[in-house]
Automatic annotation (TrEMBL):
Organism: Pseudomonas cremoricolorata
Protein family: Belongs to the FAD-binding oxidoreductase/transferase type 4 family.
InterPro entries in UniProt: FAD-bd_oxidored_4_C, FAD-bd_PCMH, FAD-bd_PCMH-like_sf, FAD-bd_PCMH_sub1, FAD-bd_PCMH_sub2, FAD-linked_Oxase-like_C, FAD-oxidored/transferase_4, Oxid_FAD_bind_N
The EC number(s) this enzyme carries: 1.1.99.39
Name of this protein: D-2-hydroxyglutarate dehydrogenase
Ranges for domain FAD-binding PCMH-type: 37-216
Subunit details: Homodimer.
Keywords, in A-Z order: FAD, Flavoprotein, Metal-binding, Oxidoreductase, Zinc
Length: 467
């Protein structure tokens, strides 16, 4: 814990009112969406400037105080959890868009800018920020960069790292680094910018980001297709990719749809019950594209890959179809799900899911399992829902016992134990299933260069005794 005199010194670095120690603030800022670890920070500090962030990091080095960065706290790996008396550095007040270049189609943001705020700014300027996900209304740019956020448009636009043109970061020694400076082409050695993207705040804190924007998509159109089994989804993906430039290709199971429909605010896409559903999106730039989509749908029906389907005819219908997928995470969160976020190359997905599903069904016969994910880029979300009668700790303990078998399958398929949610505390003990000993050794060595005293987000990615 941080003593009173040390906290008093911290208050001299920012306004005293921006150092919070009341129980409500500690609870709110000390956790994320995982619910696995009870929050226990000693304080929360809210800097307004990058100079204040530097001062906070130097203060932490002097007193050997651990710091945990906090954005929108929508993470699902425990990377933003302060469970051991750390000081939380929350970027809520560094929330301004401070630059825009229409020629370069780039925008300069502070880390606390909300994702949807950035998307709205891009739209106001006739452009588009394509990194999108269900938590865009509360997630922050700094957190997105720290976790290399993906989401629903990866098949077309890639991950967050594809859109980061430059960064300013404060390292674990308090040094300010300005990386890449917004350049498109820069062949001057190591691209340190990429090291900080996805590093979960373990190497440095993002204090400014230059992000690229894109042409706004036109006449986005969605189709929801019901399939008789999961194996049919991949031929459907292949068929549509052969004819259209897809902006998204998602899937969800009938159990997931049942929870969405139970909300009462989203209509069913069609009457035919199906075990699995695919949601695809494309730009219908002209009638020919729409006709090609319908012709591909009819071919999929003839092949037996699709049982029924619907195509949006308006923006309202487009939004309603997307709700079937985007509302899933929030809807099942009320059941305290145990989540796994795993990936393989797209071609391996059907066999991979079959093996995982068999293991889960064998070991969790009394639990409800909900599958959904970004199938177009090989990312599957496995969600096991907690029965109402079962204690949370007992439920998580039962789920954790099967992780070994699940991750052994991931390793055998040369996949990732965390496709887009990061490692944090929840996945750190399983890192070796996706990373070799040599890779982990290199990662630890890089951590030591940028954070020699180990004050930045300790216990994340690697266990504390390995830092």
């Amino acid at each position: 814990m941080t003593d009173t005199a040390v906290l008093a010194e911290l208050m001299t670095l920012v306004a005293p009112a921006k150092v919070l120690t009341d129980p409500a603030s500690l609870q709110a800022y000390g956790t994320d969406w995982t619910r696995h670890y009870p929050p226990a920070p000693s304080a929360v500090v809210l800097p307004r400037t990058l100079e204040q962030v530097q001062a906070i990091v130097r203060w932490a080095n002097r007193h050997q105080v651990a710091l945990v960065p906090s954005g929108g706290r929508t993470g699902l790996s425990g990377a933003a959890v302060a469970a051991h008396g750390e000081v939380v550095v929350a970027f809520d007040l560094m929330n301004q868009i401070i630059g825009f270049d229409a020629v370069d189609r780039s925008v300069v943001c502070q880390p606390g800018v909300i994702t949807r705020q950035l998307q709205a700014f891009a739209e106001e300027n006739g452009l588009y920020y394509p990194v999108d996900f269900a938590s865009s209304g509360s997630s922050q740019v700094g957190g997105n960069i720290g976790t290399n956020a993906g989401g629903i448009k990866v098949i077309r636009y890639g991950m967050t790292r594809n859109w980061v043109a430059g960064l300013k970061v404060v390292t674990g020694t308090g040094e300010l680094l300005e990386l890449n400076k917004g350049l498109v082409k820069n062949a001057t050695g190591y691209d340190l910018r990429q090291l900080f993207i996805g590093a979960e705040g373990t190497l440095g804190f993002v204090v400014e980001a230059t992000l690229r924007l894109e042409r706004a998509p036109r006449n986005l159109t969605a189709m929801v297709l019901g399939t008789p089994d999961f194996d049919s989804i991949m031929p459907v993906l292949h068929a549509f990719q052969g004819q259209l430039d897809l902006t998204a290709f998602e899937f969800f199971s009938d159990k997931g749809l049942a929870h969405i429909l139970a909300r009462g605010d989203v209509p069913a896409p069609f009457e035919t019950p199906c075990p699995f559903y695919a949601l695809l999106e494309f730009e219908a730039l002209n009638d020919e594209v729409a006709e090609q989509a319908l012709a591909t749908f009819e071919r999929c029906v003839e092949q037996g890959w699709v049982l029924d389907g619907v195509m949006s005819q308006s923006e309202t219908q487009l939004r309603n179809l997307w709700k079937l997928r985007e509302y899933l995470s929030e809807t099942i969160s009320h059941f305290t799900p145990y989540k796994n976020d795993i990936s393989v190359t797209v071609a391996k997905v059907p066999a991979f899911l079959r093996e995982i599903d068999a293991v889960v069904s064998q070991h969790y016969p009394d639990f409800e399992v909900v599958w959904y994910g970004h199938i177009g880029d090989g990312n599957l979300h496995l969600n096991i829902l907690k029965p109402a009668h079962l204690d949370k700790a007992a439920f998580f303990a039962r789920c954790a016992t099967v992780n070994q078998w699940v991750f052994e399958i991931v390793e055998r398929y040369q996949g990732s134990i965390s496709a887009e949610h990061g490692v944090g505390m929840i996945k750190r003990d399983y890192l070796h299933y996706s990373r070799s000993p040599a890779e982990i050794a290199c990662m630890k060595a890089i951590k030591a260069v940028f954070d020699p005293n180990g004050i930045l987000n300790p216990g994340k990615i690697f266990a504390p005794d390995h830092q």
